[in-house]
Amino acid sequence: MHIVNPNAFASPTPREGPGVAPPPPGEVGLKLEAWIAAGLIVPLGWCGWISTVDAQPPGPDSLAAPAVEDAGGRLEGLTEQVQTIQADTDRMKRFKFSGYVQVRWETAENSGDTVKVSGTTLTPANVERFYIRRARLKLTYDASPLSQAVVYFDGGSDRTIRLLEGYLALLDPWTSDHRHQFWAGQFNVPFGYEIERSSSLRELPERSRAENVLFPGERDRGLKLVTPWTDRLETVVAVINGGGVNSLDFPTTDPTGGKDVLGRARWSQGVFDVALSYYDGLGLVPLTGDDVETDRTRFGADAQLYYELPTLGGGSLKGEFYSGTNVNADSVLALTVSSSVGRLLRPGADPAHFDTDFIGGYAMWVQNLGEKLQFAARAELFDPNTDLDHDQFERVSLAVHAFYDGFTRITVSYDVPRTDVAATGGGYDDAPDNLWTVQFQHRF
Q1: Are both 124 and 252 inside the same structural domain?
Q2: Strand partners, 264
Q3: Same domain, yes or no: 200 and 329
Q4: Helix (H, G, I), strand (E, B) or coil at 90
Q5: Pairing of strands 121-122, 129-144
Q6: Residue 183 to residue 193: CA distance in whole angstroms
Q7: What is the DSSP letter of 216?
Q8: Has residue 21 been placed in a domain?
Q9: Residue 387 CA: distances (Å) to CA of 355, 359, 390
């Protein structure tokens, strides 16, 4: 079996495949800057030469010296202009723009043409629609080899522009490739594998349910230290607010004095990668009266195996497991009541049941089908309360990708979720909510 770099086949990015290879990141901008500089320098030089020639009328040799001095002055002026253009070009090269757009069409098993109310029954809203799932623009500014700043925006499904990431990174000066990094700002939570994998590269349209519940928004604010101890071993330690930027109660603040702490250690062999992650912190459920503190702990383990088949191409097997304690939205809803004065604890309810033990995870198989197609399948489970039955979420997802060119990917996926819903005559039924998705994505 021939082994290749996992990045070459684990998930063929829109920049892979046959045909003319696209320029590497930044090269388009550099070529444009070079043409701009050339477009300004050449006309200036040509005009300067013509002016110099025109400024030398025929005459005695005594007139030659002033003409030479005049030409020298013009040359110095031209040199200053070129230097100014070069300085401006150097500044422009420090900016790097990238991003992607995802356009989707979805249709679900429970779609309906209208929303009607009959007594206390509300029919499901129509979910057959076109929409923009993600429209993202990222600006990176490399101030020097030792520091950079990143600002990342999204204008996707909620139709409002919002800040996804904004951070500065300091790189170490004592290694040639500046591998040690210190980040400060808003960034992806460095836990496990799935969170930090870009949505433009992911093999299925959405992340797993466990990740969505445990890390709402995937991002938080704080500090992060990346330390590569060897070429294979890397550790990441972070201190963050906790709760995530999509927290319903505290999306931008931390109501607790202590911060959440997490760490991850990853061992990478190229063909097989494995990592362990741990997260420890506290949450807060706001109530009218005394607020309730909840535990927020997570343990995670992930692994990825990469291989290559002679005819089909590269493939991978990936898996991730979560366990710990987290605030349970269903428990909070069951143990509290909303009133005109706010959210109150129900009489006799025990707030210690706000947080519950959970388990979750997924297993995924990805296989290239030549250079233009790719197949992906994932099975996942999330149990938000291991002490309660019939609250588990299960889902099987299938997807086929077609790579149109080096920048565009077309995806067709089918999700089969399974949840227990109490039936009218007793027992439980699975809700009819299977989902078809067609997605067009372009990266730049």
Answers
A1: yes
A2: 236, 277
A3: yes
A4: helix
A5: unpaired
A6: 19
A7: T
A8: no
A9: 12, 11, 10
Judged by DSSP in three states, 163 sits in: strand
Measured CA to CA, the distance from residue 261 to residue 382 in angstroms comes to 23
Total Cβ atoms within 10 A of residue 268: 17
What is the residue-averaged pLDDT of the chain? 84
CB 419 within 8 A of CB 393: yes
Find tokens 């069951």 and name the residue: 334
CB atoms within 10 A of CB 158: 9
3-state SS assignment for residue 364: strand
- Distance separating alpha carbons of residues 239 and 422, to the nearest angstrom: 42
Tokens 């005695």 belong to: 60
How many domains does the chain contain in total?
A: 2
pLDDT digits (tens, 9 = 90+) for 168-185: 999 999 988 898 999 999
The CATH number that applies at residue 303 is 2.40.160.10
Distance of alpha carbon 417 from alpha carbon 398, whole angstroms: 12
Residue with tokens 């494995």: 274
Which tokens sit at 372? Answer: 């233009």
The one-letter amino acid code at 235 reads: T
Q: What is the DSSP letter of 34?
A: H
Closest CA to 203 of 42, 31, 401, 439: 401
Residues 6+ positions from 429 with CB-CB distance below 8 Å? 420, 421, 423
Closest by CA to 401, choosing from 368, 378, 379, is: 368
Q: Is 3 helix (H, G, I), strand (E, B) or coil?
A: coil
pTM: 0.78
Asked whether residue 434 is assigned to any structural domain, the reply reads: yes
Give the pLDDT band of residue 399 (cuts 50, 70, 90). Answer: very high
What's the CA gap between 13 and 201, in Å, rounded? 6
Average pLDDT for 352-370: 96
One-letter amino acid at 148 equals Q
Structural domain including 71 reads 32-86
For residue 201, the SS3 value is coil
Using CA atoms, how far apart are residues 286 and 148, in angstroms rounded to an integer?
38
One-letter amino acid identity for 387? D
- Residue finishing a domain among 86, 109, 127: 86
Question: What SS3 state is found at 5?
Answer: coil
CA distance 190 to 278: 10
Kindly state the average pLDDT of the residues 228-248.
Answer: 94
Q: 214 and 321 in one domain?
A: yes
